[in-house]
Amino acid sequence: MSLSLGAQTTYEGTLVDSKCYLGMNETGNDHGQMKACGTMCLKGGTPAAIVTKDKQCHALIAPSGALADYVGQQIRVVGSLHNGAILAKSVQVNKGGRWEEVKLGGMAG
Predict the structure, then answer these.
(1) What string of DSSP letters covers 33-66?
(2) Which of 8, 27, 48, 49 is most buried, judged by most C-beta within 10 A?
(3) pLDDT digits over 8-26, tens only?
């Protein structure tokens, strides 16, 4: 059996923790009185997601723990879209106007 993957596309937007974004529309790392809530959620296994400029939310098929320190920041994801989720091949975070690669561990999209 052959698995056909979709075309690789670049997506830009805000990294969010999917639970707090979908439940409370939170896009930052601090959620009300909960400081670093987004980071804690991703380190605990909650799926990461990207919210694009046109307000589309896509779950990221990537290790949440590797992305946990970047919740609320601008990211660039190269990957393929499958049923609304992005199979991430690479992720970069914008640090001071420069894109820096995020190490995803042994996962390859």
Answers:
(1) TBTTHHHHHHHTTPPEEEEETT--EEEEES-HHH
(2) 48
(3) 999 999 999 999 999 999 9
Tell me the whole-structure pTM to 2 decimals: 0.89
Phi-psi region for residue 7, left (φ > 0), alpha (ψ -120 to 50) or beta?
A: beta
Q: Which two tokens stand for residue 77?
A: 């994801």
Using left for φ > 0, alpha for ψ between -120 and 50, and beta otherwise, residue 46 falls in beta
Give CA–CA dist 43/47, Å, rounded: 9
CA distances from 84 to 28, 58, 62 (A): 22, 6, 14
Rounded CA gap, 17 and 5, in Å? Answer: 25
- Dihedral over Cα of 25, 46, 43, 90: its sign: negative
At 46, the pLDDT band (50, 70, 90 cuts) reads: very high
Query: Residue written as tokens 């307000």?
Result: 55
